[in-house]
TrEMBL record:
Keywords: Cell membrane, Membrane, Transmembrane, Transmembrane helix, Transport. It comes from Fructobacillus americanaquae. The keyword Cell membrane applies. It is a multi-pass membrane protein. The chain crosses the membrane at residues 15-34, 46-67, 79-97, 109-129, 135-155, 167-187, 218-242, 263-283, 289-312, 324-345. Pfam families: Mem_trans. It is found in: Membrane. This is AEC family transporter. Signal peptide: none annotated. InterPro entries: Mem_transp_PIN-like.
């Protein structure tokens, strides 16, 4: 397929266009509502809390309530491994992008570049474009992110040793619990007690905890709450933008340079690794897995990483400026990445 044909196919794909419009439209709506004081600061905090403690965990969990497919299982394992490898690569290489800066700034910018808002920003977009499979891959990919965010990033930003309380904080995170629970139940479902499904169209046997089949009304309610993740997250992102001070951030050249690295260079590295993996047949991934990983890498700086910088007074003003500029940049650039990964998916290596 030629580039023009692939581009036309992508730009006429209603699901892709809808995902882009939904994302940008809801972020702009959140910005407008907060700017008009329709959404108060407390309301924004509530939106964020509901999203991270209820909607996103359910989004991750319900994505695994699906039949066990060998190909998807293999892809999930590959995505898990690449999710660990990419953070090792980013941790080692990102500081070199800031060689002209002092040691302190270089280390902070390296951490901020390595860790993006993959959960709050990336996962809803992956789900909007690629459905349950995109959410599943995003959840598995995020395991490596959580491991390094609560260990390496904390140690680097705080200058302290990793303590048990930080490991506990990672393990009791609702999204981590939902991901591991969903993954374990999904992988083990064929060896669990089975219940007959008397669907006239597709009679089968499923694990007793496959709520989508055994208790469809409960599953429907869970899906309803999970469906809140995207709109609530995007509203909160827009509202948070309205609360930030633009004047200083826009004048900060380092914040713009950082944002270019975060939403352009980092996803390019991820795309190149995915293509190389398929060319060499080393942990190859399919088009959806590749696209999900690239989208996750094209997100703005992780809020947790910025909070580390502020909590330990470690280039806190710079971190705040990078948060604002990278969020604006990602909002503009992510739709382009959605189109780009669709085009990359037409390459022979992903067929």
């Amino acid at each position: 397929m030629s580039i023009s044909s692939a581009l036309e196919k992508t730009l006429t794909n209603n699901s892709i266009i809808a995902a882009i419009v939904e994302t940008l439209g809801t972020i702009l709506l959140g910005f407008f509502l907060r700017n008009r004081q329709t959404l108060s600061q407390d309301a924004v905090k509530t939106l964020t809390s509901i999203t991270t403690s209820v909607a996103l965990p359910l989004l991750a969990f319900t994505a695994f309530l699906t039949p066990l497919n060998h190909q998807t299982l293999v892809q999930s394992i590959d995505v898990l491994i690449w999710g660990l490898i990419i953070y090792v690569i980013l941790i080692v290489t990102m500081p070199f992008l800031y060689g002209r800066y002092g040691k302190d700034q270089r280390e902070v910018l390296g951490v901020l570049t390595a860790f993006g808002s993959t959960t709050f920003f990336g996962m809803p977009i992956a789900g909007a474009v690629y459905g349950a499979k995109g959410i599943m891959y995003a959840s598995v990919f995020n395991i490596g992110y959580r491991v390094f965010l609560y260990s390496y990033a904390y140690i680097k930003m705080s200058g302290e040793q990793l303590r048990g309380e930080h490991i506990k904080k990672m393990l009791v995170n609702p999204i981590i619990i939902a991901t591991f629970l969903g993954l374990i139940l999904w992988v083990s479902q064929n060896w669990m007690s089975q219940i007959s499904s008397y669907s006239e169209s597709n009679p089968s046997h499923v694990a007793f905890y496959r709520l989508d089949v055994t208790v469809p009304w409960l599953f429907s309610w869970m899906k309803l709450l999970a469906g809140l993740a995207s709109p609530l997250a995007w509203l909160a992102i827009g509202a948070n933008l309205a609360q930030m001070s633009f004047t200083d951030a826009i004048k900060n050249h380092t914040a713009w340079y950082y944002s270019f690295n975060k939403v352009i260079i980092v996803p390019i590295i991820m795309a190149a690794i995915a293509i190389l993996a398929n060319v060499t047949h080393l942990l190859p991934v399919d088009q959806v897995a590749m696209a999900t990983m690239v989208i996750m890498m094209a997100t703005p700086v992780a809020t947790v990483a910025v909070n580390y910088a502020m909590a330990f007074n470690h280039q806190s003003l710079l971190a705040a400026n990078t948060s604002l500029i990278s969020t604006i940049s990602a909002t503009i650039v992510l739709p382009l990445w959605i189109i780009i990964v669709q085009l990359l998916g037409e390459l022979p290596v992903f067929k």
